[in-house]
Structure to design on (229 residues):
């Protein structure tokens, strides 16, 4: 099963306000395992990048000046996505922006099935935060490099989150702990020494003291039988 984990960065929150895609990253996974195939492009939006947006993703208008226009990467992007499921965090946002860009350059919009990890996370963790950072923390995924939003890093983190949400990570290779390593003293069996032919050595003084102790016990004490054996 081939799926595409996808993320975008934009100049703003609404394409209806003519905000544009400035970065797109997509990661191929097959049967919940990353294949190593990745699509990543920065895009010149042909407009300014508001400071409020730069504060979030760190991508400036100057940085994007020499990057390709979306129409120049559209065919490569569509070929990579193909007809497979798209996995995204708040999928309507990313797919809405991408369809806006595709329409602008006369391409067919995406009709792929969309899997929204926000919805999956809310089902699995009702009443809890489902931000990407919160999910990484809850699922023990290292996100220390995520100082600012990045489509590339966020897609990588999201792929791991998606795999965890589906309980599809690879089984742990940790070996089971040997129960014998945790035997307590009261579980000790003296026969183990006998089986290994280990001779228990005591001094004559210890033997004398032990005999005196046995003689203080009642005649039915088990030690009398052991001594006679």
């Amino acid at each position: 099963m081939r799926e595409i984990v996808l993320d975008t960065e934009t100049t703003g929150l609404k394409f209806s306000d003519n905000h544009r895609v400035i970065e797109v990253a997509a990661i191929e996974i097959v049967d919940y395992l990353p294949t190593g195939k990745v699509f990543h492009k920065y895009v010149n939006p042909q407009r300014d990048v508001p400071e409020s947006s730069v504060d979030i993703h760190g991508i400036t208008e100057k940085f994007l000046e020499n990057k390709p226009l979306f129409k120049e990467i559209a065919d490569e992007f569509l070929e990579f996505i193909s007809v497979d499921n798209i996995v995204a965090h708040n999928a309507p946002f990313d797919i809405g922006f991408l369809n806006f860009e595709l329409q602008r350059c006369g391409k067919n919009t995406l009709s792929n099935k969309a899997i929204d990890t926000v919805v999956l996370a809310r089902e699995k963790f009702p009443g809890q935060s489902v931000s990407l950072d919160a999910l990484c923390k809850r699922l023990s995924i290292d996100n220390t490099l995520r100082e600012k939003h990045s489509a590339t890093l966020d897609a990588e983190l999201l792929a791991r989150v998606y795999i965890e949400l589906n309980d599809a990570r690879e089984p742990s290779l940790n070996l089971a702990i040997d129960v014998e390593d945790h035997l307590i003293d009261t579980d000790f069996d003296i026969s183990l020494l006998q089986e290994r032919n280990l001779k228990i050595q005591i001094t004559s003084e210890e033997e004398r003291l032990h005999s005196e102790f046995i003689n203080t016990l009642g005649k039915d004490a088990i030690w009398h039988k052991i001594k006679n054996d």
